[in-house]
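Q: A reviewer asked whether we had any structural model of the full assembly, not just the individual parts. We don't, so I'm hoping you can provide one. Inputs are below.
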Amino acid sequence: MATKKQEREFEKERKRAVKARYERMKAEGLEKFFTPEQIRYNRNQRILGAVWPVFRGLIIFGLGFVIMYPLLFMLSTAFRPNTQMSDPSIVWLPKTLTLSNIKETAHVMKFDAWDWKKPLDNTILNTVVLNVVASVLQVITCSITGYGFARFKFKGRNLLFAVVLLMIIVPPQITTIPLYIQYAYFKIFGIIPLYTGNVDADGSKEMVSLINSGLTMYLPALFANGIKAGLFIYIFRQFFRGLPKELEDAAYLDGCGPFETYVKIMIPNAKTSFLTVFLFSIVWYWNDFYVSSSFFTQNNTVALMLKNLNATLTATLFNNQSISVRQIIVWLESGCLLSILPLLVMYTFLQKYFVEGVERSGLTGM
Amino acid sequence: MTINKNNSGNQAAPKKEKVSKIPYEKRKELYGYGFIALWAVGTIYFFIMPLVQSLIWSFHDTDVVVGGMQLKNPGIQNYYYAFRQDQNYVPALTNMIKNTLMNTPLIIVFSVFVAVILNQKFKGRTAARAIFFLPVIIATGPVIDIINGNMTTGGYSGGSEQFSTMFETNLVDDLLNFLGIYNISDRLTNIITVLTSDIMNLIWKCGIQIILFLSALQGIPYSAKEAASMEGATAWEYFWKITVPYISPMLIAALVYTIVDSFVDPQNDVMKLVLSQSKQWMFGKSAAFAWAYFVIVGILLAVIIAIVNKFVYYEVE
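A: Here is a predicted structure for the entire assembly that you could use as a starting point for your response.
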């Protein structure tokens, strides 16, 4: 096996040889070797080969700029003193840099709150705990479900899978309010009243309210119904369908039960897929503000803090005076920067799993 | 399992094998149910029940009481209200459908274009890919609202306005005038203006679709490429005769994703109406709004898929 470096050398050598041969042919007269159409085709290909990379570079640069623009703007404003916002001589580079915007925003968003008795008051820590627990639960249960759909034939499988597809296309806005009532008066088919032991006529006293508790995120995730669970089940099903069946047959012959096979054979084979789904799950939980704003009134996550940042900032920094966006923009952009920074760091290091993972795991088979 | 039986017949079994009486196929079916049991329970409680509940609400007047919801006056009055009385619902709905129908082809074409470019070999490809997929990470969060807000309200007198005017009416008009076309049609200019002024949002919505098409592009077998270049296909011919057929199966996935994505976006006008109704404690009306919307978009999706499916090329028949 040639190493990559050697392969590159070979490629160069091949190109040089082709070029030399072409030169020789040209010296003897191209008409001897090619038909006129071939000559024209070759010439066009050569011109295209020289021009296209330039155009491609321009296109990529332009579109890349459009995508990066908000981030660059964020960086430029987050470290800029507020007074320099209305200075017309400054477009990108501020004259002086400051950290005070970041510090003040971090304080308002409770990023720096720390109390040994209640560590979850810290927004970052609270969000990380919520996200990681929910994502881990979600990945485990969704993969089990996806495996069930991929490898077992049972009655009603297609119908049940249609429910999974329904989960993908039904917007959470339809189910949120009924869910809210289910959570606020939580009784799990009357099991909790049995547990607490005093069942009264309408059962209203024994209900437990889950609102503001992390359980509103963990419970759905535990039952493979968290945020975008339908999509994850779909991805896992596609992925497991792509693995060779012989793997399992071998495991069965060696005496593994189906669940043992799943844990010992399928999970190690699906590592990349697991990582990809886990990363996407983290991202979606981190960014979610709709579901969490419905079920949390006090339990603060980064996305909720950011969503309310404008109001909180106006209250704390400007005493509720009405102000224009221009006056508050440095703090808003600092807040944006602070809240996507963890995601950006994660993305920089694990970029290849976001991209290649999706390519290799399942979605391809749609 | 038959092997186990044979073994125990031939030699003295070291430990007693438990041979169950349920046949193997049947047992596998049961295991299948076992694997999806957790999801099934969860779906009934966290998905089906709320869904049915909201469907029931949409046919009633609702009152919030302790311990739940009081329902009265069954009937279709909420739907009647949505379509005949509410001033905002129908315009928002038509607007939303129009926007989706206009943006979806653009997003698809654009993502195919970018995917084809990112699939070529050039220096810095990894970095380019990283940048183009960045929106996937950020665009679902509240950050995008703030960014958009700052861009559109012109909170800042410098770059953002330069940026937004770069793509706006003037440029399009200037271009048309430059080509000698004056006021061909107001509507056409309007459409072009809407599209170009929103170019950032358009690009930011393409992340997942680019990934999908890229994966399809990498599935094109090398033999197809080789054959095409031997036959002397130009890049244009290659694109239409090789690339498009091979990525057409992914077209449906990308279409569904794009439409669903714009449909469940909490920022679109219909969703805002749904949420504002439920904020005013009008849960019946809110549910009716959402369900009517859901059914209409569902039908739209089904029609589009049925049409597109006719043009899709599947290699394995």
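A: Points you may want to mention in the reply: The radius of gyration of chain B is 28 Å. Confidence is low (pLDDT under 50) at residues 1-14, 152-169 of chain B.
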